[in-house]
Amino acid sequence: MNAPQTTREFAIDPIPEGAIFRIERPAKLNALTRPVLLGLAACLDELEARGARLLVVTGAGERAFCAGTDNIGLFFGEDVFIALGAVLLIQGFFSQHGIELEPLHIALWALPTAIAAFVIHGLRIVWFGQRLARRSEGAR
Known about the structure:
This protein is of the alpha+beta class. The protein has 3 helices and 4 strands. It has a 4-stranded mixed beta sheet with strand order 1-2-3-4, covered by helices on one side.
């Protein structure tokens, strides 16, 4: 990492003590993506190999340093509120047509789908972690 490196999503500027890692996504408030995290991991590996002890992480633009992650489907807490609204909508629809259902019974029927989504997402995270570890080991 003797010369500056730039991609569409991040830039790395070497300095004598280490490096400056700049997230280049100001339109998205520098939200983290897989390429940014992989670039950061590679930068850290290279700094460790060099014996450098300083990494400055910054973001492009003036509105935000880093707004979080730019992932879809990772926010199960938000899904709970959406699901609750859907359960009440279903209950209201059936109630208008003379069919009385308890919201709890409707929610219980949705549990297998929620459990499957949780398991699938959990496996994807484990799989990604293993891939990242293999890639990190291969870079050394």
